[in-house]
């Protein structure tokens, strides 16, 4: 009892810094600094496709290494403990069920599309990389003008019925599946523990219907879509909006995404922590192992998970 009484008076903020803490990337199973996963280019009227792997990063973490970046964040914010998880949509949470070029080709056969899948993919990439001059944003509202340009450029077919069939296909659950089969279990566990969850995505207004079709929209407390926020990653505005919707400070959130420029650099510019999907973390189970800030009430006090672990160590029988 005397020990418990002493623990009640213990200032954990003074004690915890003396103990080793986990780095920003969760667990020791992550190969820190090896930031070279396959990226995905967004193609929500079509599908995403694997792009060329990138060499080691050229951002803060890429130049100095992830550990140095974590030390930098600690100097700003103290111990890295996250209250919120932000998740990229396409390429991280969900992936296309079939290659984009295959769908464009299959649906397009009855409309006279003659290009091979390889030709469609090449033309798609060329069209997607062109600057979109009709708006500062690619995804405005439902994104139809942008995707009409992409589909017609990729296939050489400007038939409006063809476009509508392709466009509507990518609003159905048949077009997508979850990237990680453990996602539901992990997100529900995090939510029960008090972690705030949000999707942050460069997408048009079809994203929420897609999440509903996949029966996963209710996993999240907020969805920040570029078409609604009027800012696309890597613009930090969309990350700041997600944090605002969750009611957390940017430094208390970590974002997980598969694109170094859009997800990692963008999130860090907003003041969030960020992990690269496929390199820093390979599954949502690994994300769950991170030092999130879980609050538990003991003797009238709120303790973080790390504090509770220390409390339990000193007060166990």
Write the layout of secondary structure elements.
Blueprint: H1 2-9, H2 12-15, E1 40-41, E2 49-50, H3 60-64, H4 66-77, E3 84-87, E4 94-96, H5 100-108, H6 117-129, H7 144-155, H8 160-169, E5 176-178, H9 183-192, E6 196-201, H10 207-213, E7 222-225, H11 226-229, H12 236-246, E8 253-257, H13 260-269, E9 273-276, H14 284-288, E10 296-298, E11 301-303, H15 305-315
Parallel strand pairs: 3-6, 3-8, 6-7, 8-9
Antiparallel strand pairs: 1-2, 4-5, 10-11
Helix pairs in contact: 5-6, 6-7, 7-8
Count of strand segments: 11
Question: What letter string, H or E per element, gives the SSE order?
Answer: HHEEHHEEHHHHEHEHEHHEHEHEEH
CATH class of the domain at 99-174, anyone? Mainly Alpha
CATH architecture of the domain at 99-174: Orthogonal Bundle
Taken from the alpha-carbon principal axes, the silhouette is globular
Global structural class: alpha/beta
Largest sheet: 5 strands, parallel
Low-confidence stretches: 1-44, 46-64, 76-80, 294-317
Count of individual helical segments: 15
- CATH topology category name of the domain at 99-174: DNA polymerase, domain 1
Strand arrangement across the biggest beta sheet: 7-6-3-8-9
The proportion of residues in beta strands is 5-15%
The amount of helix comes to 40-55%
* End-to-end C-alpha gap: 11 Å
Protein name: Haloacid dehalogenase-like hydrolase domain-containing protein 3
């Amino acid at each position: 009892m005397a020990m418990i009484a002493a623990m009640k008076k213990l200032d954990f903020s003074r004690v915890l810094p003396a103990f080793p803490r986990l780095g920003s990337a969760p667990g020791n199973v992550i190969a820190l600094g090896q930031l070279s996963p396959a990226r995905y280019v967004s193609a929500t009227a079509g599908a995403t496709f694997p792009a060329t792997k990138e060499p080691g990063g050229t951002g803060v973490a890429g130049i100095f290494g992830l550990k140095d970046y974590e030390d930098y964040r600690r100097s700003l914010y103290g111990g890295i403990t996250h209250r919120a998880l932000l998740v990229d949509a396409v390429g991280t949470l969900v992936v296309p069920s079939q290659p984009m070029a295959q769908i464009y080709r299959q649906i397009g056969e009855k409309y006279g599309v003659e290009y091979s899948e390889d030709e469609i993919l090449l033309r798609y990439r060329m069209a997607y990389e062109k600057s979109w001059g009709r708006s500062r944003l690619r995804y405005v509202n439902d994104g139809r003008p942008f995707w009409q340009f992409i589909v017609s450029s990729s296939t050489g077919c400007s038939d409006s019925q063809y476009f509508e069939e392709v466009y509507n296909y990518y609003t159905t659950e048949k077009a997508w599946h979850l990237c990680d089969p453990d996602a539901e279990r992990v997100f529900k566990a995090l939510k029960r523990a008090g972690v705030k969850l949000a999707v942050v995505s460069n997408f048009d207004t079809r994203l929420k219907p897609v999440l509903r079709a996949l029966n996963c929209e209710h996993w999240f407390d907020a969805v920040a879509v570029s078409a609604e926020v009027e800012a696309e990653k890597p613009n930090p505005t969309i990350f700041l909006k997600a944090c605002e919707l969750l009611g957390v400070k940017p430094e208390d959130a970590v974002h997980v995404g598969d694109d170094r420029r859009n997800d990692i650099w963008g999130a860090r510019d907003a003041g969030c922590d960020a992990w690269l999907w496929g390199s820093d973390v390979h599954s949502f189970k690994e994300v769950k192992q991170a030092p999130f800030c879980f609050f538990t009430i003991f003797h009238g006090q709120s303790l973080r998970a790390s504090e509770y672990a220390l409390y339990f160590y000193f007060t166990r029988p």
